[in-house]
Amino acid sequence: MKSLIRIETKSTDCILFHKVIFPIVKIESLVHKRGVILDTILDQKQSASRIFSILADLYKFPESDIWEDFSCHQLLDELRRYASEWYDSNSLVEITDLPTGLKQMQQIYAESLSGPALPVESIYKEWTADRTCKLPFARSKGYLLGDSALHIRFILEEFEIEIPENYRNMPDHLAILLELLAFFLLYAKAEFIKQFLVDHFDWLDEFALRLEELGGNQFYLQVTRLLQQMLNKLTSIYGY
Q1: What's the confidence (pLDDT) of residue 195?
Q2: Domain, as residue range, for 233
Q3: Is residue 210 part of a domain?
Q4: Which of 3, 188, 197, 211 could covalently link to 221 via disulfide, CB atoms 3.0 to 4.6 Å apart?
Q5: pLDDT in tens, 54-72
Q6: By the 8 A CB rule, do 176 and 57 touch?
Q7: How far apart are CA 66 and CA 102, in angstroms?
């Protein structure tokens, strides 16, 4: 599936690249051990990145390419395989209310994520924390392009990351946030990842509640509960 973010960054050394530093030792037998540790860390980062990349795909409008991978269970099977590295498979949130066709999946998306429960961070937070702002909706929820969106826009511009035109007014859409998280898990320093999690995923309880209130098909609610489970694990790894 096509990623929403296109990276053409010229300089990422200020934040993104994280080197694992080991004590300097003079014992040749530890060279192989160090390589094993590095391989393990890389595998864990790649697995975590893939989890959130797959989840990002599930929050995009379902086009035929997404449905093709979804209908043959490729997406969910891969997601479950990677997630099982973090949780016992019996304790994972189950996704059982599955769409049976592309048209139905698009209809479910339209009835939930396209409007009543739009997965955009700004909508679930006060529009701005700037107390000098005199706009009448400054302290209200339900508006696009709030502080969180401006922060994501800054990150995108800083690293010369492009997103599709139809996401320009909602750069803090959950699909974008998850693709960025997947990218940062591979290349960012731990401190940056921790702060990104703190800043941009604290609204999902309210989002899930809105999905729950909609009733009807539970697919996107179940996906969101699984996402929360994966984020809880990730936040415990990064220590907050």
Answers
A1: 94
A2: 23-88+99-119+173-237
A3: yes
A4: 211
A5: 999 999 999 999 999 998 8
A6: no
A7: 9
